[in-house]
Design brief:
It is a single chain. With 368 residues, the chain is an alpha/beta fold. Helix content is 48%, strand content 9%. The protein is built from 19 helices and nine strands. Strand 5 (256-259), helix 15 (273-281) and strand 6 (285-286) form a beta-alpha-beta unit. The longest helix is centred in the C-terminal third of the chain and has 17 residues, at 310-326. The termini are far apart.
């Protein structure tokens, strides 16, 4: 009898199919885009139940279907079952059966060979900020791949705000993209390699919500313990602000903004307050969208979706942009480079999208 990774979640799968509540339909980003139940959490559970009972074989069609998921965790927020973990496990089962997503295979190879999902890149970021980098510092700024190579203004803004810090001379992906696309063994190898590189630091700060969730939640779930304290940049900056080491001028006075909760930072790690504290400290008036905090709509980019169906990712992002525009805010702020990238792609320039670090860099004055 075959054993599968989803065997560990059989009880949750059957509970979902038997209850048939359908709460997961409401704000599942892919369901809102496609309109078919098989893209929802409940629909996926029905598919996995049929697979476990031998009624539905593994196929490329199933691999393609399960690849269309942002792993945003909205379904978990209304269900108490960690659905993204189940979907990641089934992606791994399908991969073991030989059914993979070619673009995700390419990303895996990029991470293995060049330690970044984006493949070839340059390291000029480190040379530009050599005056602030101290290789003896106990503080490591772990930029993550997207801020380091695609949304570099975010990394640059964060480095302007930080005191002296260290930066890995050679970038190394945390493995988040591997973990969420079914390459969990490869993610484990990547995680072990990164842990060995960062264990000498006392504090690791990252601007990427995905990296933060991976290091603080997924690594322990893999059985890996990290010695340094790991903080998302908003958590670190709130601590610096409250400790009097960082002064924030009221550059946002008279400006209305709305805040988009990144899935990995919000639902993934339950951090909702730190970004809002910083925005209010800078004088911004925060107007909440209809769906916010644990019920926030996904930006559409996660789980490997943007890499294989950019048009769907931007359609999902457009739904969030429309919700943001309805608040009457003049600025949409978030705290994740990947959210920034997709929301900007989806917005068409109608509403400015910024990462919170970019605003803080304009406002901050560090006290000696």
């Amino acid at each position: 009898m075959n054993t599968y990774h989803i065997d560990a979640y059989k009880g949750d799968i059957y509970t979902c199919v038997r209850s048939r509540c359908g709460f997961c339909f409401h704000a599942c980003p892919v369901f809102l885009s496609k309109g078919f139940e098989t893209y929802t959490s409940r629909g996926k559970c029905m598919i996995m139940k049929a697979f476990l009972e031998g009624k539905l074989p593994a196929s490329q069609g199933l691999a393609d279907r399960f690849a269309l998921c942002t792993t945003c965790g909205y379904c978990t927020s209304v269900c108490d079952v960690d659905r993204p973990e189940i979907f990641n496990a089934f992606r791994e089962d399908l991969r073991d059966a030989g059914y993979t997503i070619p673009r995700h295979d390419e990303i895996k190879e990029n991470v293995e060979k060049q330690h970044s999902p984006y493949g070839s890149h340059d390291e000029s970021l480190a040379s530009r900020f050599a005056w602030k980098i101290d290789h003896d510092s106990p503080l490591l700024y772990y930029a993550g791949c997207t801020a380091r190579y695609r949304e570099r203004t975010i990394a640059e803004a964060m480095m302007m705000v930080l005191p002296s810090f260290d930066l890995l001379e050679e970038a190394m992906c945390c493995g988040s993209v591997l973990y969420r696309t079914g390459y969990r063994d490869d993610a484990m190898r990547q995680a072990r390699a990164l842990v060995s590189r960062i264990e000498r630091y006392s504090t690791v700060v990252t601007t990427c919500a995905g990296c933060y969730k991976t290091l603080t939640r997924d690594y322990p779930a893999m059985g890996l313990q990290i010695r340094p304290e790991v903080l998302h940049c908003t958590q670190y900056l709130v601590r610096e602000y409250k400790g009097g080491r960082l002064t924030l001028s009221p550059v946002g006075k008279g400006t209305k903004v709305t805040y988009h909760d990144p899935c990995h930072l919000g639902r993934g790690t339950c951090e909702y307050d730190a970004p809002r504290i910083l925005l209010e400290a800078m004088g911004y008036e925060v107007i909440e969208m209809e769906h916010t905090r644990e019920m926030a709509l996904c930006c559409g980019a996660g789980g490997g979706l943007k890499s294989i169906d950019d048009s769907m990712a931007t359609r999902i992002g457009s739904m969030r942009m429309e919700e943001a525009k309805r608040t009457g805010a003049s600025l949409l702020v978030t705290a994740c480079p990947f959210c920034v990238r997709n929301l900007r792609d989806a917005g068409g320039g109608e509403l400015d999208v910024v990462d919170i670090t970019e605003l803080i860099a304009q406002s901050a004055r560090r006290e000696k």
